[in-house]
C-alpha cells in the first residue's frame, strides 16, 4: 500500500511540474509566438526603427499584420512607439531593455534552425 501511495504522489508531482512547464511555454508563446514577433525584434535590433524599414527587412509581412504585431509587442513591454509631432508626423519604434531577455531564446532558435536546415538538406541528398 505504501508503494501505491508513492506512485500516486509521484504522478501528481509530475502532473504539477508538467502543468508548470505547459503554463510557462503558453505564456512565452502568447508574448512572442507566431511567425513574425521575433523576426520584428531581430530586425529592430539591427537598427530598423521606422515602420517601412521594419516591413522591408521582414520579408513577406503585410502592413496590417506588422501594425498588429507592433501593438502586441508594445503591450508586452518589448518595444516603445515614439511619435514626434510635426509635419509630417514621425513615428519610430524602440526596443526596450526587456527585449534583451530574448537574446538566449533567439540564439538557441538560430542554432537549432541552422541544425534543422542542415538535417533536411542531408536527408534530401540521400533520396
Walk me through the structure.
This protein has 127 residues and is mainly α. It has two domains: 1-32; 33-126, Arc Repressor Mutant, subunit A (Orthogonal Bundle), CATH 1.10.10.10. The chain has helices at residues 2-32, 37-45, 51-57, 63-75, 103-126, and strands spanning 79-84, 90-95. The protein has a two-stranded antiparallel ribbon. The longest helix is centred in the N-terminal third of the chain and has 31 residues, at 2-32. The N and C termini lie far apart (55 Å).
Summarize the structure in short.
This protein has 127 residues and is mostly helical. It has two domains: 1-32; 33-126, Arc Repressor Mutant, subunit A (Orthogonal Bundle), CATH 1.10.10.10.
Q: Output mean pLDDT.
A: 90
The main β sheet shows up as: 2 strands, antiparallel
Structural class: mainly alpha
> What's the level 1 CATH class of the largest domain?
Mainly Alpha
Question: In CATH terms, what is the fold-level topology of the largest domain?
Answer: Arc Repressor Mutant, subunit A
The coarse overall form would be flat
Layout of secondary structure:
Layout lengths: L1 H31 L4 H9 L5 H7 L5 H13 L3 E6 L5 E6 L7 H24 L1
Antiparallel strand pairs: 1-2
What keyword list fits this structure?
127 residues; mainly alpha; two-stranded antiparallel sheet; 5 helices; 2 strands; 66% helix; flat
Amino acid at each position: 500500500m505504501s508503494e501505491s501511495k508513492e506512485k500516486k504522489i509521484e504522478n501528481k508531482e509530475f502532473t504539477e511540474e508538467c502543468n508548470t512547464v505547459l503554463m510557462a511555454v503558453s505564456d512565452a508563446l502568447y508574448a512572442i509566438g507566431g511567425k513574425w514577433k521575433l523576426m520584428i525584434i531581430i530586425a529592430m535590433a539591427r537598427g530598423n526603427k521606422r515602420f517601412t524599414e521594419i516591413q522591408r527587412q521582414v520579408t513577406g509581412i503585410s502592413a496590417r499584420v506588422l501594425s498588429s504585431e507592433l501593438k502586441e509587442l508594445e503591450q508586452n513591454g518589448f518595444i516603445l512607439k515614439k511619435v514626434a509631432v510635426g509635419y509630417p508626423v514621425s513615428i519610430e519604434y524602440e526596443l526596450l531593455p526587456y527585449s534583451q531577455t530574448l537574446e538566449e531564446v533567439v540564439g538557441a532558435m538560430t542554432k537549432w534552425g541552422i541544425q534543422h536546415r542542415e538535417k533536411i538538406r542531408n536527408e534530401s541528398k540521400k533520396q
